[in-house]
Amino acid sequence: MTDAPKPPLDLLIAAPRGFCAGVDRAIRIVELALEKHGAPVYVRHEIVHNKFVVDSLKAKGAIFVEELDEVPANAHVVFSAHGVPKSVPADAESRGLEYFDATCPLVSKVHRQAERLVEMGRHIVFIGHAGHPEVIGTFGQVPQGSMSLVETVADVEAFTPADPDNLAFLTQTTLSVDDTAATIAALQSRFPTIQGPRGEDICYATSNRQAAVKAIAAECDAVLVIGAPNSSNSLRLVEVAERAGKRAQLIQRAAELDWAFLDGVKTLGLTAGASAPELLVRELVDRLSERFAVTEREEETTRETIAFKLPRGLEAAA
Hints:
This protein has 318 residues and is an alpha/beta fold. The protein has helices at residues 21-37, 51-60, 87-94, 105-119, 133-139, 153-158, 177-190, 204-217, 232-243, 278-291, and strands at residues 8-15, 41-44, 62-65, 76-79, 98-101, 123-127, 147-150, 167-171, 222-226, 247-251, 267-272, 293-300. The protein has three domains: 8-19 and 204-300, Cobalt-precorrin-4 Transmethylase, domain 1, CATH 3.40.1010.20; 21-103, Rossmann fold; 106-190, Cobalt-precorrin-4 Transmethylase, domain 1 (3-Layer(aba) Sandwich). 37% of the residues lie in helices and 19% in strands. Helix 8 (204-217) runs parallel beside helix 9. The longest helix is centred in the first third of the chain and has 17 residues, at 21-37. Its cofactor is [4Fe-4S] cluster. Dimethylallyl diphosphate binds at residues 49, 82, 132, 231-233, 275. Belongs to the IspH family.
């Protein structure tokens, strides 16, 4: 008696997907700090929003903490890729802690823009998700009260600034390109003199991954996104697929795959958020191959060649 043949499944894999340059750099900073100084190295907050990555670094000797007061004297500490308020490095310096800042350079760019706008006397309207570490870090760059948060077009309509003619806006780097465009349009409609950033705040990796999902969604019956539930850019990829009219689901690992999700699916789209390693993509492909005769095809919409420099003090260790 022979086994029944596996049903066919066309797998359309988005490119680019997975790690971006900022995530790559942040993980490398923790690894190099461990190589240079030995374990333990402390990391304030998840270095990136991915449990597999965090657990891998824990196994190498990284200790993750929520706040700096959990870090003992004379220890080495790394700040996450999402950025931190100015008070955090100031606190580290006052305690004599040696720290490495793994803030993504594109987030740091938004921080500098915020400082400049406040120096110019502008009140900043910041488009982002309340409570996200990147939002907390950006608000922590400027004096309290000099920035207001909006999340939606409805928030823009309800916003009543003290000086409507002296506003500027900035955005979180990991937002939905389409949603943010609508929110910016609403701001510009209500406040024609509002000043925007010199360039796009939503980072290239977020935009590229969303564009790649749009490209494959047209050909797919459903889309799986590998990423963490607290990863903003991963959640946006699910929304992009759903907006294209396709069933979409976020999973962290192959073990979470719900086979029922694949009922009736002939062509499955697959992508990964910017903090999910390629290893997890391959793990999922292997799991799909247990039940299906998988035919893989990659659709590349753009090629990413950006790389960011390491902080001083770790370049020599690289």
